[in-house]
Design goal:
356 residues, alpha/beta, seven-stranded mixed sheet, 14 helices, zinc-finger
Length: 356
Amino acid sequence: MSLEHVLNYLKRKHLENPSFSYALEDEDNVGNVFWADPTCRLNYTHFGDTLVFDTTYLRNSQVPFAAFTGFNHHGHPLLFGCALILNQSQSSFAWLFHSWLQAMSSPPPPPSITLEPDPVIHLAASQVFPQARLRFSLPLIMEKLAHVFGSHPGFQSEFLSCVRETETVGEFEGAWDSVVRRYCLEEDHWLQSIYNVRQQWVPVFIKDTFFGELSSENSNSFFHGFVDGSTTMEMVMARYEEAGAKSIQVYKAAVVALDEAAKKVAAASSKTRGGATNGDSYQSDETQETANGMYHPLQCQGEKERTILELTAELERTGQRCEAYRANLLSILRDMEEHKFQLSLKVQNARLSLKE
């Protein structure tokens, strides 16, 4: 019944808007389900330089839900698509990745992907995205090391220091060997298994590839606060609508910020070109100065450097203004939500009074 509810929802959304994409792995048997709305596609078009396949809910909350996400230029999460994981075989995950890629239409496949440290998901992603650099999620690796952290106080901080602060492969290898020996963990199977695939998650091995990171003020999950262990399939769809509104707001704010910055750069560049290449007169002056032995290439180079510094400073100021606008907008939205809540309470109290 729950799955039927989800499928009816997806069919209705597609009828309302043909740009809303969804796919079923197998209509006769229980298979995975995928969907993405037009905003997901726009998000990926503009910010598809890295992809996160987020299965946090599937593993931690036992909710058969996964999300394709990414980041904008401020490190804020963006939604690229959603899925119900009803079959966890390699072929089903491969089908899901193919469906997502097809739904994104013209943009190229992501050059880098972050996913769960699971061999089945890894093999499926390797099959569908052969050119992509794959990285295992460090937060999910740490979750699987909870048994070690709980048994050995102090190990977690040393583990993170070893992983995040080493700058060369040799330095990492030495630090890893030291901390493992100090806590007598040479025989820990899971610890050894993640060490064997260190090239796919330790920063020193993958620092030449962009994977994107969330800003410190955001959760590691796009649907944090929307999906948890008590969420049913019906609730997944309702909360998808709520989080979708969040995605649209983030996308619009990002596009406005990019447009504003682009306009500033274009205006400054146009002004610079107009002042520096003012028709034949500039060429005539340059020719004349060269003839008189007065032309100084360093002076021209200095002007270019000053222009670059001015443009850079202007971009930084624009970014700061965008952040201020975003903070003000979030504050207004919070106030509106609080006002809405208070009104709801008043309405409820009024109804109770009438009944009495």
